[in-house]
Amino acid sequence: MKFLNHNKYQIKPLFFKIILSMKIYFSLILILSISFCFAQDQAGFKDMKASNKNAKIAANKQINNLRNGALLVRLKTGQNTIDALIKSGQTDLAEKRKQKINEENLRIINAFKSEFNFCPVYFFYSNDSKLVTEGKFDDVKFIDEKLQVIDKFKFEFENFLIAEFGEVKGDTTKFYSHSTMQTTDHFSTEPQATYYGGGSTGAKGLIIKDKNFSQLRRPFPFFVKYPFFRKVTKQEIYTVRKMNKNLFIFLKNN
After folding, report:
1. What is the pLDDT of residues 152-192, one digit of tens each?
2. Residue 96 belongs to a domain
3. What is the 3-state secondary structure (H, E, C) of the chain?
4. Domain of residue 46, residue span
5. What is the pLDDT at residue 19?
6. What is the pLDDT of residue 183?
7. Residue 167 domain-assigned?
8. Which residues touch 127 (CB under 8 Å, ≥6 apart)?
9. Less Cβ crowding at N or C end of the chain, within 10 Å?
10. Is the pTM for the entire model greater than 0.85?
11. How confident is the model at residue 198, as a pLDDT?
């Protein structure tokens, strides 16, 4: 009986020692996790700062090259859709589709002719995109204001960017934002990193791209959204005018 009583008084100190050890253990885990999050925050901030600096340097170079170079505007042909309609015997729809595309292209050309003076502008059809990327300009069919091919045209600009109307993509660059403690399925806590950037905006308008048709990134003013409150026939004029203004402002401030 005395032996049992002795064991009884031994158990309590042991129990409190176990509780104390667990508190110390979880405190250490918490301290290490917070330290990890802080280190991640600092590393993420440095990465973001370096990326922003590089983007600014690239944008400054791009705006000056464009000012002393040229802008090539890619026009759509819709040829695949037109060919499919003709093949299925829907020649009337094919003709209407072709007419609609021609009207859109004419609006784009007229908008640039009247509203854009940041640099020289030239127009080409999308089926010559590969030739443009490869720099084979002697084989590219440049288009005039009547949608006719310009004979014996010589493109002599070393620096140029591409412009076209379409859907803008979100910046694919992702930046570390912060870390938070999350409970796992095993009821332990682990730091989880959060990032921002990437994705697609779905917005449509005028986009400026590089020689490989890759969308530029901020701070370069590469995108102007279609104005939803304007008539469809006036959208290109407003958008090109705003892009021209944005380019001059960015050049002046850099």
Report:
1. 899 999 999 999 999 998 764 444 444 555 554 444 455 55
2. no
3. CHHHHHHHHHHHHHHHHHHHHHHHHHHHHHHHHHHHHHHHHHHHHHHHHHHHHHHHHHHHHHHHHHHCCEEEEEECCCHHHHHHHHHCCCHHHHHHHHHHHHHHHHHHHHHHHHHCCCCCEEEEEHHHHHHHHHCCHHHCCEECCCCCECCCCCCCCCCEEEEEEEEEECCCCEEEEEEEEEECCCCCEEEEEEEEECCEEEEEEEEEECCCCCECCCCCCCEEECCCCCCHHHHHHHHHHHHHHHHHHHHHHC
4. 2-75+104-253
5. 65
6. 54
7. yes
8. 77, 79
9. N
10. no
11. 47
Residue 190 lies inside a defined structural domain of this protein: yes
**Phi–psi pair at 225, nearest 5 degrees:** -80, 145
Count of domains in the chain? Answer: 1
Question: Which residues in the chain show pLDDT less than 50?
Answer: 1-4, 9, 43, 45, 172-178, 184-188, 194-200
pLDDT at 176: 45
